[in-house]
Amino acid sequence: MHIALVSTFYYPRMHGGTEQSLQYQAEAHAKKGLRVTVISFHDGDKPERFTHNGVDCLTLPVPNISQCLDVKNRASATVRSLWHIIDIYNPVAGRLLEKTLREIKPDIVQTHNLPGWSCAAWSACRRLDLPNIQVLHDFQLTCPTATRFRDGENCKDTCLKCVPFGILRKRFSQRVNYVVANSNYTRELHRGLGYFSAAKIFAVIYGAVPPPVKSQEETRRSDQTIRIGYIGRLHSTKGIELLIESFMSVARKDLVLRIAGSGPKPYETELRQKAQGAAIEFLGHTPASVFFQSIDLLVVPSLWNEPMGRVAIEAANHGVAVVAAKRGGIPELVQDGKTGWIFDPSIPGELAGILGKVTRDQIQALRSNCLAWGQTFSAEKTSDQWISLYKKILNT
Q: Domain 2-208+378-394, what architecture?
């Protein structure tokens, strides 16, 4: 079986969790004997072919007015606007993908994030009569920023700015027969907005996470300090200010807060000033496997409706319990009372209440549950789910 995975980015141009999940899936498929080809973009002007960990990789120049994928930071406002208008439906990109698929002859095409490819990727698959699975990692089809978050609030309705981008995408989405979302929240949001209403299958397969660190039990410290952690981008949508304020409001000397990650310098400075005098450490960029071994409890305090919040699964995979915000798809990844606790960031004092009462014994009691839960999201098991779906589609 030959699977083509179409994405904006792929190794070595890794931009976040989407690309990581895609890489874990592709490599797990290859280990199971599937032929896997990933088609993505790069900023050069010539196609590049190479193989990485058993996966065939083909990277192509971007067929838009600017070949630069980072148009947000490296192009003028006019170029950015035109780039995104073209990217609603780019027939040149569609023909490029069609030509590439004719050459490699896959059995199934998975389209992932579509910037650069546009909805024309779906038309390319239809012209070749190839089964096409659209994988939803975020809200990019409904919102240019992919977040549905504006002015400090989650968007309840599609704002006027997003309507022009969404109308055509919604219309073209009716051409897709198979859709997989990375959470129930992501699936129901698109369904509620009228996307993919003609889909024969609209499934949920959570994004794969890396394997656990087997030595982690041996490296944990035995003192009574409870090390609370946050890892990720330092941004106002992530709820870090809420976490700091909640932590500082708890009168406990046995708690330490470790914050790993980076963000805009002015915002980092603001956070450091807010945390002055408290037992709060800013670690900067830290490898996830190292970070999870240095904490006892992870907090995911996001204010925006994250589609999946894969960091919660990465923590569980390392035996770390999670205190997670009731936002987007995040609660789906935490078994309340079994692998952690869920709180509502809109309720004042709810997060502080959890931090003020949690004990080391409670955290330790959840460790085995976390490790077992994390394994259900392994690349090997999610690969099995994908392969079952491929067989179902090909047999219909």
A: 3-Layer(aba) Sandwich (3.40)
